[in-house]
């Protein structure tokens, strides 16, 4: 089961990884964007931790809502509203549960990804975070017989493959799409931050 305390470890882990990878994500966002993705993610999760400490959530739905609101209020650009919407949809799906299982996590992620696709009008192959999230979700759905840990690792691995798959893609959404053909040959920063999220989930939920 995934408990509220596991979710707390997850958000602390995200703050740590986005702080550690701030420069790298910003480097990825430089040739095909405006070089702020690492700054956005690190700032967002610093704000999440502040909000969490100021008013510790009492269930998992509230925890995802805390994450969502802090990101929406503190991160501009496209990734702020997109990740913010993702966590808001996850919050609505989970509701007042104190712990969730693999099926709940898969369902929450599915709703969250739908939110990203609706808000950004994006789809698979556009060279965005969705190219990491969709394969990760598919892996989760076909992992029902696996343990939580195995399923989450398979999901992070599928996300990583999807992320690498963005390198030869031509961007169709976001700032990178302004570059047309010149967006080819670069790994998408948002797909990379999405993989960190999946990896931290695999590390913290057991
Ligand atoms: P901005 O592009 O506004 O500077 P960020 O640099 O923080 O915002 O985030 C860029 C990332 O956001 C991209 O790498 C891409 O993965 C993601 N992104 C941008 N637009 C969309 C969209 N319409 N749908 C899904 N993801 C998107
Ligand atoms: Mg940017």
Describe the structure in brief.
The protein is an all-alpha fold. It has helices at residues 4-20, 22-32, 37-54, 60-74, 79-94, 102-120, 130-141, 148-165, 189-204; strands at 2-3, 99-100.
SSE class:
mainly alpha
Q: Helix share of residues?
A: 55-70%
Number of strands: 2
Q: What does the main sheet amount to?
A: 2 strands, antiparallel
Features of the shown structure:
mainly alpha, 9 helices, Serine Threonine Protein Phosphatase 5, Tetratricopeptide repeat, single chain, binds magnesium ion, binds adenosine-5'-diphosphate, 206 residues, two-stranded antiparallel sheet, 2 strands, globular
Describe this structure in words.
This protein has 206 residues and is mostly helical. The protein has one domain: Serine Threonine Protein Phosphatase 5, Tetratricopeptide repeat. The chain is built from nine helices and two strands. The chain has helices at 4-20, 22-32, 37-54, 60-74, 79-94, 102-120, 130-141, 148-165, 189-204; strands at residues 2-3, 99-100. It has a two-stranded antiparallel sheet with strand order 1-2. The longest helix has 19 residues, at 102-120. It is globular and about 45 Å long. It starts with a strand and ends with a helix. The mean pLDDT is 97. The structure holds adenosine-5'-diphosphate and magnesium ion.
